[in-house]
Every structure is written in structure tokens, then in C-alpha cells.
Amino acid sequence: SVAIVPLSTEFGYSDTVKGSISSIFSIGYTFALLPLALAQALASPKYIMLAGVTSWSLLTIATPAAAQAGVPYLLAARMGVGAAEAVTVPTIQTFVSRWVPKNQRSRALSLLYSCLQSGTILALLVAPQIIKYGDWKMVFFAFGSLGFVWATFWVPISQDYPDATVKSGNFGSQRIGSPNARSPATAPVEGGGGSGAKALPWDKFVTNKGLWAATAAHSANNWGLYVSLAWLPTYFTSVYGMDLASSSFYSLLPYAAGAVTSGIAGITADKLLEGGMGATAVRKTMQGIGSFGPFACMGALAALSADGSASSPEMASALFVGAVALGGASSAGFGASLQDISGRYSGLLYGLTSICSSITGAVGVYETGVIIDSTHSWAIAFGSAAVVYAMGGIWYAIGYDAKPLFEKGSIHADVK
């Protein structure tokens, strides 16, 4: 989102083209979600993750050459980057279900989501400096190279399943990881009356109301989050005349707040569960904060933008910070819902919900570009995001139920 500013200046892109460049990433992400979620569920998530990250790095490094070749080539490269990134969160969900006990998963997922936001923060801090002392092409070269550095640590350290026991000093052998951690030979998809994808209970997945409620909240969150991520630097540059470094600073503040509140939400959710509050009530409470908090902030920003009252970047930034910070509670809402429904298939289920949510996010990014091009009204763009947040929150509040998808005794049930 930072590099798009000098990139669009150099090549003369309109706001609609900029929206297309940002949204095509989500389209690639969407198309790859189900195949990659299936692959990591049925094969080795360790190596599926490795393949995804290295592909992402290669395509990121190739992006400047694609831009020089023309918009169609740039769109293809960005679509490929999105497809490669689709492996990340489904694989994280699978590793959490295998390695983390159920009563600690809210905080584990929230911590991991905070790390993802921290990466965004670091990128927004570093990218303007790279552009200032080099050029926009160096951003893609530098960030793309980091994936190969990560791979040198990932391969020797990571493993698909935790060991059954570990030696722990004077305490003897202790079980580590989640009870769902089975060896590949005993995984239910390989012993459930079929093989591979055919053995998966697809009918149970697509007819579960709780899964659709989580999908709705996830989709609404993606609309607001994608619009913010893609358009914040442009907003601060065009509305307040900021330079790239200043606009990036204001753009990163919401994500810093979101990273903090996401971690707090996870810890709070686990504490509430440990205190006896039901899982359905905990998830709805957290998602209520994560949906209706951003609704209020984006609605206020739309109202202020309509009458010109948002006269300072500090005021606008405060509302963006509030929206993303409160939205961080979603990490313990829809973000942890799939662990309640089915820990074993959480990675695959995340892939299924993300198909809808990524399409919604891409539509939001593109629609914002069209709105700005045709009406020059940021108020309409922010108002649209507020309405979508509310719709997702209402659906989740009405439809979500944390009841496990599979009864005890089913070959697909989580191990207690």
C-alpha cells in the first residue's frame, strides 16, 4: 500500500487501476485458498508453508519487472503473490490445533494474529525509508528476500506433529501439544471410509450455521481491514497533503493498536472460558466488540468526512485507530470460532470461510477506488465499511454456536 503511491505516480495509474492492483491480490488469495487448505490438511503443512513462502518471495521480487512490462503483467504478479500467501493462516490454524491445548488456543491465535499485524507495522515503517534512500523497486527486492532467510530457520526447526512426550528435568516425561496431535498414519481422513479429500465430511461443513456465521463476521472484517490497509496511505496523502513517510506513520498506528488489543482479547477470552463462561457467549462477546466497535468508528469518520469536520489528520487517525483496535477483538471471536467447531479441521475450515471473506475484501478495495474516482467522497467509502461491519456482527450474534461439529465417537471428532 505504501509502494503503490510512487508506483502509480511513475506510471500514471488512476484510482480505479490502483484499486485493481490492490484487489487482484485478494482474488489470487481466494482462488488458492481451498486447494492449499486441502493440501496442508492432507499432506505436510510444514512443506506446504515452505512452498507458499518461497513462491511469495520469488513473485514479490519479480513485481518491479512486471510493472515495467505493463499493467496486465503487474496484475498477474500480484495475483500470484496473493495465491502464495493463502497458505499462511490455514496452516497456522492447523498447527495451533495440533500443538496447543484447547484452553489456550484463543491466546495462541491472538498472539499469532498480532504478529501478522506487527509485520504490517514494520513494513509501513521500513518501506518509506527504503523508498526515500533508494526507490520503490527496492521495497519488493528487500521484502521478497526475507522469505528465503525465514526458510533457513523454518526447515530445520519446524515439524508437523509434536513428539508424544518430552523429558523435562526432574518432572519426568510430560505430554506436549494438543490431544488432536496424531501421527499422519492415524489421522481420520486416512481411515474414514475413503481417501484424501473424498473422506472429508463436506456436507457437515457447508450446512453448519455456526460456520456461516463465522464466515459473515470474517467477511465483514476483511472489507474494513482490506480497505484500510490498501487506502490509508492514499487517504492521508490526498486529503491532508502528507509526504509518504508521514502518511505511512499515520497508517501504521491503527495496526499497532490492533496488535495489542488482539493479544489482550485472546487472553481475556481464555480467562472467561476458564472461569466457566460458555464458549458461545465468549465468542459472541468478543465478536460484538470486534464488529460494532469498528462500525461506530467508521460511521463517525464517514459523518465527519461528509461535513468536513475531520479537519485534522490526528482526528482521522484516532478513528482509524479505534476501528482497528476494537476490531482486534475478532481474533478471539470468529478467529477462534473454528477451533470450537472442529479443531482437527480448523485449517481447512479457515480456508473455506476465507474464500467468501477474501472476495468480500477484494470487492471492498475495488469499490473504494471506484467511489473515489466517481464521487471523490471518502464519506461514502467509510460509510459503506461501517454498514458491512454491522451486517457481519448481526449475523454472527444471531447465528453462531460453539457446539462441536462432530459428536463424540465420530472418526472426525476432536480427541478429548
Question: Summary?
Answer:
By secondary structure, the chain is mainly α.
State the end-to-end distance. 44 Å
What is the number of E strands?
2
SSE-based structural type: mainly alpha
Q: Which regions have little confidence, pLDDT < 50, spanning 5+ residues?
A: 164-194
Rg, Cα atoms, Å: 21 Å
Q: How much helix is in the residues?
A: over 70%
Treating each run of at least 4 consecutive H or I residues as one helix, how many helices?
Answer: 15
Overall shape: it is globular
Average pLDDT metric: 83
Order the strands across the largest sheet as they lie in space: 1-2
Strand content: under 5%
For the biggest sheet, the summary is: 2 strands, antiparallel
Account of the 3D structure:
The chain is mainly α and 416 residues long. Helices cover 75% and strands 1% of the residues. The chain is built from 15 helices and two strands. It has a two-stranded antiparallel ribbon. Strand 1 and strand 2 form a beta hairpin. Helix 9 runs parallel beside helix 11. The termini are far apart.
Which helices and strands appear, and what pairs or packs with what?
Blueprint: H1 4-11, H2 15-42, H3 45-69, H4 71-85, H5 88-99, H6 105-133, H7 136-157, E1 165-167, E2 173-175, H8 202-206, H9 209-240, H10 244-274, H11 279-307, H12 313-327, H13 334-341, H14 346-375, H15 378-399
Antiparallel strand pairs: 1-2
